[in-house]
Write a structure and sequence with these properties.
Layout: H1 5-11, H2 16-28, H3 31-34, E1 39-41, E2 53-63, E3 71-72, E4 78-81, E5 86-96, E6 101-107, H4 109-113, E7 116-118, E8 121-123, E9 128-137, E10 143-146, E11 150-158, H5 202-210, H6 214-296
Antiparallel strand pairs: 1-5, 2-3, 2-5, 2-11, 4-10, 5-9, 6-8, 6-11, 7-9
Helix pairs in contact: 5-6
Length: 298
């Protein structure tokens, strides 16, 4: 049986002094004093529905993009939840359930219509402490939540009295007042890669993880590269080849001209040297002939 607003009012401990005492009853496991009572601290009549109670955003939240660092939330402050981001939100309310009442957490219609998902969860009999509720933004735009804002709904179901009770050794987060440290199996911090370190192979990893529509993005990337390559080949490469050919011809012509000039210069020097040698030899022969003639006629 789901408890109505009247039934809830009759069981909820509302006196401030008694609430503090009641919270100690749950810590000590004093079920005789607890009886059928339950605690919602703080309790606001305005949050009570026909057979539900709206829970509000508390003092901390934890983004799964940064799972090791719960973020504080001051009074009046708000925070944003990005597209595809999941956060765990600590409720403002401290809930204590007796042995014959369990609770279910369900989303509010307002947030369903925003394209978000609040994950349903159960609260077992004999639980005491604040709740940690998962909130995922499935929309394309960021959404904002503020401290103290209603974001999920709780309804209470009466059951037969349980034999077993929750204990700290079996349920470490029993009596939760803060988020504390959570050991995740798969969740890891999401570190964004700088633009200058992104490689083409990274798009394949994204496609493997998320599938469609990232396969379309990868296809467009390759198509764009192909079109750019074809345009360069058609519009730019031909000019580059022509300019390179002309430059090569000019360079070759300059080198040949230089070599020709060097060769001519060497040839001139060789001719001069040969003529000089021949002149010396001719002078020597002429001198010898003159000497011979003079000797012969004297």
């Amino acid at each position: 049986m789901i408890l109505s607003d009247k039934a809830l009012k009759g069981r909820i401990v509302q006196d401030t002094k008694e609430v503090k005492q009641a919270r100690e009853w749950w810590k000590k496991g004093d079920w005789a004093k607890i009886g059928n009572k339950l605690v919602i601290d703080p309790f606001e009549t305005s949050a009570l529905g026909v057979c539900t109670y709206d829970l509000t955003v508390g003092e901390e939240y934890l983004s799964l993009r940064d799972p090791d660092n719960p973020k504080p939330l001051e009074e009046g402050a708000q925070f944003k939840i990005g597209p595809s981001e999941t956060v765990l939100i600590l409720t403002e309310e401290y809930i204590c359930l007796p042995q014959n009442i369990m609770a279910m957490i369900v989303p509010r219609a307002r947030w369903i219509f925003e394209g978000t998902c609040i994950h349903s969860s159960r609260v077992e009999p004999t639980w005491y402490g604040k709740l940690l509720i998962g909130f995922t933004n499935l929309a394309k735009n960021p959404v904002s939540l503020a401290r103290g804002e209603n974001f999920c709904t709780c309804y209470f179901t009466e059951a037969s009295k349980t034999e077993a009770v929750l204990t700290k050794d079996k349920v470490p987060f029993l009596g939760r007042a803060k988020i504390g440290r959570i050991d995740f199996t798969h969740v890891r911090e999401q570190r964004l890669r700088p633009a200058d370190r992104v490689e083409l192979s990274d798009i394949d990893k994204v496609v493997d993880l998320y599938g469609w529509p990232w396969d379309v993005v990868r296809g467009m990337l390759h198509l764009t590269r192909k079109e750019i390559g074809e345009w360069i080949e058609k519009e730019v490469t031909s000019d580059i080849v022509g300019e390179a050919t002309a430059a090569a011809v000019n360079t070759a012509f300059d080198e040949l001209t230089t070599q020709y000039r060097e060769a001519n210069k060497w040839n001139r020097n060789l001719v001069i040297a040969v003529m000089a040698v021949l002149g010396v030899i001719g002078a020597a022969i002429a001198g010898a002939a003159i000497t011979y003639i003079i000797t012969a006629f004297t």
